[in-house]
Amino acid sequence: MSMEIQRLEHININVADLDASVAFYRDVIGLEHGIRPNFKNKGAWLYAGETPIVHLTFGRCEAQIGSGTFDHFALRAHGSEEFIKRLKNKNIEYDERRVPDQQIHQIFIKDPDGIIVEINFDNEMDVGHLETRQ
């Protein structure tokens, strides 16, 4: 029997400011701050439903800030209008795009460490007027 990948389990981000990152992923993205095993280093786990999909680890130095070769990660969501209102209320810059030949509305924002977070919404609005991203 060959190995088969089933899903992406989680991402781990080494952050410069744990409290700011927890607040971003909780208050802006909408994940729930939840239970984390008692690891030696400081950190936090953020959940989508029952699954801890974003792991944050504290202890990043200034020279490591930025995504490097890691460009972004994407999440699928519902409620694009409410999400845009939340971004505007929090004065968070965002970029809207669409997937070529599909009705996928994409919103790109940066977390406190400069990691790009892509949020995809299916068929919630007409996206014909938005640019496509290469």
Strand residue percentage: 25-35%
Could you tell me the radius of gyration in angstroms?
16 Å
> Widest sheet: strand order?
1-4-3-2
User: Which regions are unreliable across 5 or more consecutive residues at pLDDT < 50?
Assistant: none
Coarse morphology: globular
What would your notes on this structure say?
The protein is 16% helix and 34% strand. The protein is globular, with a radius of gyration of 16 Å. It has 134 residues and is α/β, with parallel strands linked by helices. A hairpin with a 5-residue loop joins strand 6 and strand 7 (104-110).
Q: Brief overview, please?
A:
The chain has 134 residues and is an alpha/beta fold. Helix content is 16%, strand content 34%.
Keywords:
134 residues, alpha/beta, 4-stranded mixed sheet, 8 strands, 16% helix
